[in-house]
Amino acid sequence: MISEKTFYAIIAAIILVGGIGVGVAYDKTLSSTPQQQLPQGPVSLTLLISPNNWFDNATIHHTQPAFFVVGPNGQLESSAVITLPSHRLIKLTIIDYDSGVTSIIGPNGTSNNSSYAKVIGTVGGVEYVYNGTAQYINSTLSGNASNDISIVHGSGWAVSSLPWNSTFGGWEVTHTFTLLSNGQIVLNVPTFAGTNPSGGAVTFTEFYLNNTGSYPWQCYVPCGHELDGWGGAMATAGWMEGVVQVTA
Ligand SMILES: [Cu+2]
């Protein structure tokens, strides 16, 4: 006959094993979410910067630059809220029709902070710039009028930062796509101003977002109107700032 002591010991063991069982099952549930996402491939995000959009409010009437999201059928969509998945390779292409160097870069209207001319948070710490200038002859698109232009990623101008141009007295950066987390830069992708008088450059880079949540994005070239360049577009969602929602 089982003694009372042994009986309670067996009960305790059952509860303990049961408890561990629940724990294991719970762990499996938790870990199955990223496992399910592993077979999923990279996602693409294409942004377009258009330099002269009519900005009209009570105090500012001006043409200003804006970021747009290029939708799946080529349509332009608002960049106010950009939704991206976590734990997936994100292939970002920025088509920038704007041009011109900037002597001011950084978090206020008088700063000259080289951090924002650097490529931060991308795969390999680089971006690839495609721009049809003689200065950067290797960073061109290939193609002609009778066949499709193909961009060979990796054969562009791979850079980890954009340079200061002493002739023009400014950083060769027209805008930045910068993602912040608790005020820290987690991603900084500067777009190339170059020396092409007609402007325009295509920037390609890859990155991962490892945390879910809502993160502000902002351009750090004061390209807006008033407030030392920090008014208008720079302070308006869907123009030079917005939010990136990172989903599970
Ligand atoms: Cu800007």
SSE topology:
Elements (H helix, E strand, L loop, with lengths): L3 H34 L5 E14 L4 E10 L5 E3 L2 E5 L4 E7 L30 E4 L11 E3 L2 E4 L6 E3 L4 E2 L4 E2 L1 E9 L2 E9 L8 E7 L5 E6 L22 E7 L1
Parallel strand pairs: 1-5, 4-16
Antiparallel strand pairs: 1-2, 2-3, 5-14, 6-9, 6-14, 7-8, 10-11, 12-13, 12-15, 15-16
Bound molecules: copper (II) ion.
CA radius of gyration: 25 Å
The spatial strand order of the largest sheet comes to 3-2-1-5-14-6-9
**SSE arrangement, N to C:** HEEEEEEEEEEEEEEEE
Helix content: 10-25%
Number of strands: 16
Uncertain stretches:
9-33, 134-147
- Architecture (CATH level 2) name: Sandwich
The largest β sheet comes out as: 7 strands, mixed
Structural class: mainly beta
CATH classification, class level = Mainly Beta
Q: What's the mean pLDDT score?
A: 81
Summed up, the helix count is: 1
What multimeric state do the chains show? Answer: single chain
Looking at the structure, the CATH topology is Immunoglobulin-like
Question: What this model shows, in words?
Answer:
With about 250 residues, the chain is mainly β. The chain has one domain: Sandwich (Immunoglobulin-like). About 15% of the residues lie in helices and about 40% in strands. The protein contains one helix and 16 strands. The chain has a seven-stranded mixed sheet, with no helix packed on it. The protein has a five-stranded mixed sheet with strand order 4-16-15-12-13, with no helix packed on it. Strands 7-8 form a two-stranded antiparallel sheet. β7 and β8 form a beta hairpin. The longest helix is centred in the N-terminal third of the chain and has 34 residues. The chain starts with a helix and ends with a strand. About 15% of the residues have low confidence. The protein binds copper (II) ion (CU). The site of copper (II) ion has 6 residues, from loops.
